[in-house]
Design a protein that fits this description.
three-stranded antiparallel sheet, 42% helix, alpha+beta
């Protein structure tokens, strides 16, 4: 059985590393539930929904 709470916790533990995947001027602004909000260098806000990532990881764990 997949422990979704653990998967969500693991994903949120990686928040500090998320900005490494964006331009130098992008930064993590906030996290609401399973959604990350990034402020991009032009001042706009990007939203990243972690649910599909969590579902994908869960599916891969089920295949093992």
């Amino acid at each position: 059985m997949i422990d979704y709470e653990d998967l969500i916790f693991q994903a949120k533990c990686q928040l500090d590393n998320v900005s490494d995947y964006f331009d130098e001027d992008a930064s993590l602004h906030r996290c609401e539930g399973n959604t990350l909000f990034m402020i991009l260098d032009d001042g706009s806000e990007a939203r990243i929904d972690l649910d599909p990532i969590i579902d994908f990881v869960a599916a891969m764990k089920e295949l093992r």
